[in-house]
Design goal:
EC 1.1.1.367; 8 helices; 2 domains; oxidoreductase activity; six-stranded mixed sheet; Jelly Rolls; RmlC_Cupin_sf; oxidoreductase; Epimerase_deHydtase; alpha/beta; single chain
């Protein structure tokens, strides 16, 4: 169990580090804001005695001079604070880029930033990261994956202006590498990369979107397929939910197709819940999970880890729908009716008690913000 301190802790990579720390049961990381970095003694006080400092803050886009100066100045500010620490951190880790030193303003600034930090901490862990993708990436900023996912979620088509090869790493794998996370979950600190062309990526994500708009699950043949699909789903939530199901009836009764998964696989199970009973109260890092109420009335509640806002979906067996749980959102289902609740669940993988990918987390916080009720 490590105590972390983060610069850039509220960014894309920073949020995934914080979520993984929550899953591991580590203390909430100490966040070093941009304004903090203007005051070296304040930062030094925050860094005293922590096990590991992750320097994630950086400038990725904008005017070339601002990008260059911003990355160098952020590293210099942290270096000044490190020199003032009464109890220096156990390790300092720099989230560098594979573009470091490539002759561009961004790449050269990253190389200078690494040298600046190494001057303050010769034992600096300089981790050079490739292109990262994952849930809740910022479109037009973090990665082309986030941009394509947002366009498709809005039912627009990605445009490929230049087809080139990409090497993509899921952000939770990068988080695990930077944190020194132990094995035991769906992350991989070796950072296995997906190599794909831009056009191939656009076509693949568009295929996922076409199937998913009809409630179908695409073939999730490997870990990158699962993570790309989860990245797309993060841009669909909550506006695209619940997903309606077609109910067919004849003299014999009724039929509803709750799950149509291309490529098969996964696990289906049902549960009953007495009035007032809550099930869930956890989140997943990679697992795809679907809820479908077949009988009774319920409310599905979700909260993105690290935030306060709760999204609620009233559902019932009279009008069957499905809600797929976005990864890294705590979720539960509450029987809100007077009768027994019958719910069907589907996951894309068979439950493995040794690696369950189920991390305890309450949906309702002690003093939550007003909830958003999804239509």
């Amino acid at each position: 169990m490590l105590r972390l301190a983060l610069t850039g802790g509220r960014g894309f990579l920073g949020w995934h580090v914080r979520v993984l720390a929550r899953a591991l049961g580590w203390p909430e990381p100490v966040l070093i804001s941009g304004s903090d970095l203007l005051d070296a003694p304040t930062v030094a006080e925050k860094l005293d005695g922590v096990d590991r400092v992750l320097h994630l803050a950086g400038v990725n886009r904008g005017d070339a001079r601002d990008v260059a100066a911003g990355n160098v100045e952020l590293a210099a500010a942290l270096a000044r604070a490190l020199r003032l620490c009464a109890a220096p951190p156990g390790a300092v880790v720099f989230a560098n880029s594979v573009q470091a030193g490539n002759g561009t303003p961004y790449g050269d600034a990253k190389a200078v930033a690494a040298a600046t930090l190494a001057a303050a901490r010769p034992d600096l862990l300089d981790v050079r990261l490739p292109n990262l993708y994952g849930e809740h990436g910022r479109p037009y900023y973090n990665s082309v994956v986030a941009t394509f996912c947002r366009l498709l979620a809005e039912q627009r088509s990605p445009e490929v202006h230049e087809d080139r090869e990409l090497s993509l790493v899921h952000v939770s794998d990068a988080a695990a590498r930077l944190m020194g996370a132990p094995d035991g979950g769906p992350w991989d600190a070796a950072m296995p990369a997906l190599r794909t062309g831009v056009r191939e990526l656009a076509d693949r994500l568009a295929g996922y979107a076409d199937l998913y708009r009809g409630g179908e699950i695409p073939a999730l043949t490997d870990r990158h397929a699962v993570r790309l699909f989860n990245s797309y789903r993060s841009h669909c939530f909550p506006a695209s939910y619940p997903l309606s199901l077609t109910r067919r009836a004849d003299l014999r009764g009724e039929l509803v197709e709750a799950v149509k998964a291309h490529g098969g696989g996964g696990q289906v199970f049902c549960s009953t819940s007495r009035p007032g009973v809550t099930r869930g109260e956890h989140f997943h890092l990679a697992k795809v999970e679907r809820f479908c109420v077949l009988r009774g009335s319920a409310e599905i509640r979700l909260r993105r880890v690290g935030t306060d806002e709760v999204v609620r979906f009233p559902v019932g067996g009279d009008v069957p729908v499905v809600v797929d749980m976005p990864t890294m959102w705590a979720h539960n289902i509450v029987n809100t009716g007077p009768d027994e609740l019958l719910t069907l669940f589907w996951t894309n993988e068979i439950f493995d008690p040794a690696r369950p990918d189920t991390w305890p987390e309450p949906v309702e916080l002690t003093a939550p913000e007003p909830a958003v009720v999804a239509a």
